[in-house]
Design brief:
Layout lengths: L119 E8 L4 E6 L11 E8 L6 E2 L9 E4 L7 E10 L2 E2 L3 E2 L4 E2 L5 E5 L9 E4 L4 E10 L3 E6 L2 E2 L6 E4 L3 E6 L8 E9 L2 E12 L8 E7 L2 E6 L12 E8 L5 E8 L3 E4 L7 E10 L2 E2 L4 E2 L4 E2 L19 E5 L6 E4 L4 E10 L3 E6 L2 E2 L6 E6 L2 E6 L8 E9 L2 E12 L5 H6 L1
Parallel strand pairs: 11-18, 29-36
Antiparallel strand pairs: 1-2, 2-5, 3-4, 3-6, 6-7, 6-8, 6-9, 10-12, 12-16, 13-14, 13-17, 15-16, 17-18, 19-20, 20-23, 21-22, 21-24, 24-25, 24-26, 24-27, 28-30, 30-34, 31-32, 31-35, 33-34, 35-36
Amino acid sequence: MPAKPAPIKKAAAPKEKAAEPAPAAEAPPAEAPPAETAPAEAAPAEAAPAEAAPAEAAPAEAPAEGAAAPAEGEAAPAPAEGEAPAAPAEGEAPAEEAAPVEEVKPPTPPPPPEPTSEPLELGVEDVNDTSVTISWRPPATIGNDGLDGYTVEVAMEGTDDWKAANEDLTISCRYVVKNQTTGDRINIRVVAMNPGGRSPPAALAESVLVKEVGERPKIRLPRFLRQRFVRSVGDKINIVIPFSGKPSPAVSWTKDGEPLESKRVNIRNSNNDSIFFIRQSDREDSGVYEMSVKVESFEDKASFVIQICELPGPPASIKIVDTWGFNVALEWEEPKDNGNTTITGYTIQKADQKTGDWYTVVENYHRMNATISDLIMGNSYKFRIYSENKCGKSEDATVTKDAAKILKTGIDYNPPIYQEHDFSEAPKFTTNMPDRSTTVGYTAKLLCSVRGCPKPQIIWMKNQMIIGEDPKFRQINNQGICSLEIRKPGSFDGGVYACRAKNAHGEVTIQCKLEVKQPVIAEADQKKK
């Protein structure tokens, strides 16, 4: 007889999550058949499944009818596929709830590496009897995978049997291809390597002859050709350019990147120089000339600029903008033909219509407008302008269509009214008259200076008494300098002397004290007496 099935219990929430418990599945009705329930009491605690059933799981299915519950000590049968594990028995700790497993997406594979572009500017630096030195520049496109290095490959001329000259990749952009046989012609190419593989090869345009070069080609360009070489139309041009190189270099010329026309330019080459000759130059001969000398794979180039210019044309137009007073304002435009060089200035001339003679007003003028001044009132003037460049002044000039007339204007002279200045002034002494001392018998002089308008009257006084015409005193007044000379004064001539200046606007007095001393007589003279 099968054991009585235990009632189904709710699965307990894990201890770590103490929040509200998950809702349990609805209990089956009492009359549910025993096959829908699992034996719980008879199962030992150790035999409980490791993982607890989810809260939404359906009730575990009981073993098939007639099957006996597992004996004590035996493990409970594992739930069938798709069935929830049995709930833990009473008194047993619930197993931890299984964490949901997130689906892990595989990483996106990186794009496959790509090779770089070909190396740039591959050229030969040096050649001797056993080696060839080459150089190049890194590729224009390298990419994110970087650059591992370069492989230098060599093949005999006329074959496609390319062999690597370097066993290991080289990082430098210069390499010496060694162990070559003198007299062989070899082709050389360089391949850039990176994780993406080989780049397109960069190969020399021509094969290289392995042999000792006696002297590399070198052009010695004259100093005067290092700047623009300017000549006038019709001039003869004869330029000698020396060069060196062994064996004798091959010389070639180009003009503006095109082969040189022998009809216009004569070239004569020797072993050490090249002669550039134009019998009669024309504006068409202007341009950039390039000379090239080549020995085997070595080449040297030099270029210079020739500019053939001629006299410019006259200004395109000229007009009188304004006329006022004795002035005329002119404006003009640049000439249509500048003579194949820049315009350096203009020459402006004027002509009076009464005489018709032209006179230069301004030379080497650089602006496109000018004001002509100092014209004669009542006359009419015409103007003409010449253009100038390095070759000189234009043959023709542009003349104004109309004449500028300087009109006469009436002039009324109103003499200015000046207010007469009143220079009248009361007498005033400008210097002091200090006290003096003199010795009996020695002439003394008193000085002072005075100003005033009209000229003041000067009166000298002694002890407030007017001296007058006393012959002992000499009075002088010259340009305001007043002096009183006392001739051989005696002891009684001392006192207070005053000078009084007086005119219609007032009077002023200045005074000083004169002391007359007795001479000192030596003791010997006194004894004689």
